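Page 37, continued from 36.
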């Protein structure tokens, strides 16, 4: 029993250490690694249609000195803002400060914001103001529920999707069939600043939010096996339909992560990588899954320990049962002599 207790204590310590690493792994915004050519910062002097501009916009987007408003609180609007410089970083982290607000009451507002890292830019379309069947990564901040049967989650809802140009975003199901994971977050009509962090490093995608005015990140999505190429563009878009909201981008700041790669990884042509997610079933395989449970993640240390512990207990139980059965048979055989 003492050994068992010690093992449990060791597992608990291991779990807490891993949790601490996850919490502290998000960059503190060190200006040293801020990539200004990929960052959208007040007073937005680099935004425009001139050849020297690093950001361009389309649709209903309004650029002021305090915010970039993708849509006003009006019906049937869509707008976007896109970086004109392709990103060639292998490991990066994007911090987005945003604000979603409007006069609509509960459940009478829409539709939300999307943050993109995609092959193409400035292509208006039906997915939060941008094109469907895209190549790359999308993070959706969805404020309106379309699937009235999906009552197991509350809105607003944040989700992630990786696409290689073959998968269609299912509006009717709020993207369940293609999402990698997600979380609910109260992001609308907040009196304080709201933030989203997107980290991609060594094949791992981590999404964090800071929407409670506590100055701390809360994990939303953490998934491995994600492959994204270099040379894609960052952007943000938003759309309104019969219901509306103001969708504002305050800033988008991209940080380079200093990560070591193997010689094989360094020699790889990262521009030729096809966006994909391994260790998971394909989004296409998930289309017929009514629950949309496309959220598996690689086993972490504490999960592996629990599986080994369960396996060990199973072996012990089988051994005890086998010993009892063997003893009973021996006693029965003795009675025959």
């Amino acid at each position: 029993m003492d050994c068992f207790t010690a093992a449990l204590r060791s597992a608990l310590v291991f779990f807490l250490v891993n949790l601490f690493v996850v919490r502290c792994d998000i960059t503190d915004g060190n200006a040293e690694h801020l990539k200004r050519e990929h960052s959208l910062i007040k007073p937005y002097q680099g935004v425009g249609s001139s050849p020297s501009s690093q950001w361009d916009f389309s649709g209903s987007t309004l650029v002021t000195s305090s915010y970039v408003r993708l849509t006003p609180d009006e019906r049937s609007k869509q707008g976007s803002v896109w970086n004109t410089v392709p990103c060639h970083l292998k490991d990066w982290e994007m911090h987005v400060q945003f604000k979603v607000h409007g006069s609509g009451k509960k459940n009478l507002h829409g539709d939300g914001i999307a943050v993109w890292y995609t092959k193409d830019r400035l292509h208006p379309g039906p997915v939060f103001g941008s094109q469907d069947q895209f190549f790359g990564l999308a993070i959706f901040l969805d404020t309106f529920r379309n699937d009235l049967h999906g009552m197991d989650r509350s809105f607003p809802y944040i989700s992630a999707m990786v696409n290689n140009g073959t998968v269609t975003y299912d509006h009717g199901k709020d993207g369940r069939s293609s999402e990698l994971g997600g979380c609910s977050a109260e992001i609308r009509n907040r009196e304080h600043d709201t933030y989203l962090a997107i980290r991609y490093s060594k094949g791992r995608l981590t999404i964090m939010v800071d929407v409670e005015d506590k100055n701390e990140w809360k994990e939303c999505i953490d998934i491995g096996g994600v492959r994204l190429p270099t040379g894609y563009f960052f952007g943000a878009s938003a759309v309104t339909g019969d219901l509306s909201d103001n969708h504002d981008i305050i800033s988008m700041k991209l940080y380079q992560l200093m990560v070591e790669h193997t010689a094989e990884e360094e020699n790889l042509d990262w521009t030729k990588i096809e966006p994909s997610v391994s260790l998971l079933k394909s989004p296409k395989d998930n289309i017929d899954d009514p629950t949309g449970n496309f959220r598996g993640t690689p086993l972490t240390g504490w999960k592996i320990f629990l599986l080994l512990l369960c396996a060990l207990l199973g072996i012990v139980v089988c051994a005890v049962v086998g010993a009892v059965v063997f003893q009973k048979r021996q006693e029965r055989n003795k009675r025959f002599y």
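The chain is about 20% helix and 30% strand. Flag for discussion at group meeting. The two ends are 41 Å apart (CA to CA).
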